[in-house]
Write a structure and sequence with these properties.
Helix 5 (69-76) packs parallel to helix 8 (216-227). 29% of the residues lie in helices and 21% in strands. The radius of gyration is 18 Å and the shape is elongated. The model has no long low-confidence stretch (mean pLDDT 93). The chain has one domain: TPP-binding domain (Rossmann fold). By secondary structure, the chain is an alpha/beta fold. The protein is built from eight helices and eleven strands. The strands form three sheets. Strands 5-4-1-9-10-11 form a six-stranded parallel sheet, with helices on both faces. A three-stranded antiparallel sheet has the order 7-6-8, with helices on one face. The protein has helices at 12-16, 35-38, 41-46, 48-64, 69-76, 93-97, 155-163, 216-227; strands at 5-10, 29-30, 33-34, 82-87, 102-104, 107-114, 121-123, 141-145, 167-171, 193-196, 209-212.
């Protein structure tokens, strides 16, 4: 039997319930840092030691965190659906929960990449990248994270995934960051769509939408009822 394709698009809200801070708080800071100081190519050029130290600390936080019930419930849906996850998050909590098909729009913090060629990507042994570590081209390694001002290489792949969805679920994203925010408009109009967030984002032009104004862990429980799982 062919399983229906369930596409789940997740944002910071799902990781927040595992204790990870959202990328940007209301004051525009991430863990007390202005994002322009730690999350741009210019920041890396200006002060690579600070950027490296910042992401090493974020990586330690990710490794210390555990998947929550929302991550686990999504992974369990693989029994009944062909589940593909598109995430804005740079953590690996979906993978650790058991999800097999995960597309990271903004990179994944447990990997490093060449600062010269972004296609050279390496798993990190441990929780940090040292400043003396280099790629095969001799260029310093940096976090495998898409910074502000950089291209999002997985966006076209993600758009194709959204276009094939039989069911689409958006969890924990304010849809404030582009181009990722535009992916919802690649979902077919006839496809059932579910939005789970305490503050439902204002999305125009979508049809067949069910809004669940709850946290990720609580909202996924309602989702299972809708899907009759």
């Amino acid at each position: 039997m062919i399983k229906r394709k369930l596409v789940v698009f997740t944002g910071a809200g799902i990781s927040a319930e595992s204790g990870l801070k959202t990328f940007r708080d209301a004051d525009g800071l991430w863990e007390g840092y202005d994002v322009t100081e730690v999350a741009t190519p210019e920041a890396w050029i200006r002060n690579p030691e600070l950027v490296q130290r910042f992401y090493n600390e974020r990586r330690r936080q990710v490794l210390a965190a555990s998947p929550n019930n929302a991550h686990l419930a999504i992974a369990a849906l693989q029994q009944d659906f062909d589940v593909e996850i598109i995430t804005q998050n740079i953590d690996d909590l979906h993978e650790r929960a058991g999800s097999k098909k995960v597309t990271h729009l903004h990179g994944i913090i447990t990997y490093a990449q060449s600062s010269k060629n972004p296609n050279l990507i390496y798993p990190i042994n441990g929780d940090e990248i040292n400043m003396d570590e280099v790629c095969e081209l001799g260029s310093p390694l940096r976090p495998h994270v898409v910074w502000f001002g950089e291209a999002v290489p997985m966006i076209e792949i993600a758009a194709k995934i959204c276009a094939k969805a039989d069911v689409f679920v958006l969890i924990g994203s304010s849809l404030a960051v582009y181009p990722a925010a535009g992916l919802v408009h690649y979902v077919r109009s006839k496809t059932p769509k579910f939005i789970i967030d305490p503050k439902i984002p204002d999305i125009g032009g979508l049809s067949n939408v069910t809004k669940i104004s709850k946290s990720a862990t609580e909202g996924v429980k309602d989702l299972l009822n809708y899907l009759k799982i």
